[in-house]
Amino acid sequence: MRCKRLRERMAGAKTPSKSASKSKNGNGSYYEQILARLFNRFGRCKSHQKFLMLGLDGAGKTTLLRKLKLLEPPSQPTVGFNLESLQYRQHTLVIWDVGGQEKIRALWHHYFIQSQGLIFVLDSSDPSRIPEARKELQKLLHEPELKDAKLLVYANKQDVQNCLSVSNLVDMLDLSIGEDRQWHMQGCSASTGKGVYEGLDWLVDALRPC
Ligand SMILES: Nc1nc2c(ncn2[C@@H]2O[C@H](COP(=O)(O)OP(=O)(O)OP(=O)(O)O)[C@@H](O)[C@H]2O)c(=O)[nH]1
Ligand SMILES: [Mg+2]
């Protein structure tokens, strides 16, 4: 199975070298070479659709991804990335979950290529970090490589009492991002699973038929 081969190749790429992780624009770093090879190979798999899952550290990205795969929540923050392939409504969704810690954000750009969708995860239970999340999201929306990517924002941790509502978050994020961009914000709880598939449904509906 293609994804199995992809996963086997990932094993060698999971830990970037120190020099690579410091280089924001490094040409031909070990890290970039491995990713470029994977993306090129992946690009030939027309039945697969690539989605990039980003967001601040602790937002719940990995918990959400693992929920979709019916796996236990993660035991630690992501250093590097996680890759999962998911069969959903006759689509094969390949989801890249990249760590959100500040140092790792400098590596996000390595993962932009050929992303049909950007899944941005917010922690709705922590109003103090919404301005930081908004800044990161706005930066992503100005990235040329992501200009055609559909945007799904998960307002995660809706199970937490007094969390921010979807309508509050839409206002706070100021999602005035160009009329061409298709976007949707979905309230969810990665812990309970509520809302998670509704978000995926929007994404799949927004995709061109493959
Ligand atoms: N109450 C609640 N807690 C959640 C939810 N989703 C995630 N968490 C918790 O939030 C913490 C961070 O979750 P992660 O999935 O590791 O967050 P992440 O976005 O992958 O973080 P990085 O890997 O550092 O980028 C964990 O303690 C999770 O149990 C949710 O929907 N509700
Ligand atoms: Mg994680």
Automatic annotation (TrEMBL):
<keyword id="KW-0519">Myristate</keyword>
<dbReference type="GO" id="GO:0003924">
    <property type="term" value="F:GTPase activity"/>
</dbReference>
<feature type="region of interest" description="Disordered">
    <location>
        <begin position="1"/>
        <end position="26"/>
    </location>
</feature>
<dbReference type="GO" id="GO:0046872">
    <property type="term" value="F:metal ion binding"/>
</dbReference>
<dbReference type="InterPro" id="IPR027417">
    <property type="entry name" value="P-loop_NTPase"/>
</dbReference>
<keyword id="KW-0547">Nucleotide-binding</keyword>
<keyword id="KW-0449">Lipoprotein</keyword>
<feature type="compositionally biased region" description="Low complexity">
    <location>
        <begin position="12"/>
        <end position="26"/>
    </location>
</feature>
<feature type="binding site">
    <location>
        <begin position="55"/>
        <end position="62"/>
    </location>
    <ligand>
        <name>GTP</name>
    </ligand>
</feature>
<feature type="binding site">
    <location>
        <begin position="156"/>
        <end position="159"/>
    </location>
    <ligand>
        <name>GTP</name>
    </ligand>
</feature>
<dbReference type="GO" id="GO:0005525">
    <property type="term" value="F:GTP binding"/>
</dbReference>
<dbReference type="Pfam" id="PF00025">
    <property type="entry name" value="Arf"/>
</dbReference>
<keyword id="KW-0460">Magnesium</keyword>
<dbReference type="InterPro" id="IPR006689">
    <property type="entry name" value="Small_GTPase_ARF/SAR"/>
</dbReference>
<feature type="binding site">
    <location>
        <position position="100"/>
    </location>
    <ligand>
        <name>GTP</name>
    </ligand>
</feature>
<dbReference type="InterPro" id="IPR024156">
    <property type="entry name" value="Small_GTPase_ARF"/>
</dbReference>
<dbReference type="GO" id="GO:0030010">
    <property type="term" value="P:establishment of cell polarity"/>
</dbReference>
<feature type="binding site">
    <location>
        <position position="78"/>
    </location>
    <ligand>
        <name>Mg(2+)</name>
    </ligand>
</feature>
<keyword id="KW-0479">Metal-binding</keyword>
<dbReference type="GO" id="GO:0006886">
    <property type="term" value="P:intracellular protein transport"/>
</dbReference>
<keyword id="KW-0342">GTP-binding</keyword>
<keyword id="KW-0931">ER-Golgi transport</keyword>
<comment type="similarity">
    <text>Belongs to the small GTPase superfamily. Arf family.</text>
</comment>
<dbReference type="GO" id="GO:0016192">
    <property type="term" value="P:vesicle-mediated transport"/>
</dbReference>
<protein>
    <submittedName>
        <fullName>Uncharacterized protein</fullName>
    </submittedName>
</protein>
<dbReference type="InterPro" id="IPR005225">
    <property type="entry name" value="Small_GTP-bd"/>
</dbReference>
<dbReference type="GO" id="GO:0005737">
    <property type="term" value="C:cytoplasm"/>
</dbReference>
<keyword id="KW-0813">Transport</keyword>
<feature type="binding site">
    <location>
        <position position="62"/>
    </location>
    <ligand>
        <name>Mg(2+)</name>
    </ligand>
</feature>
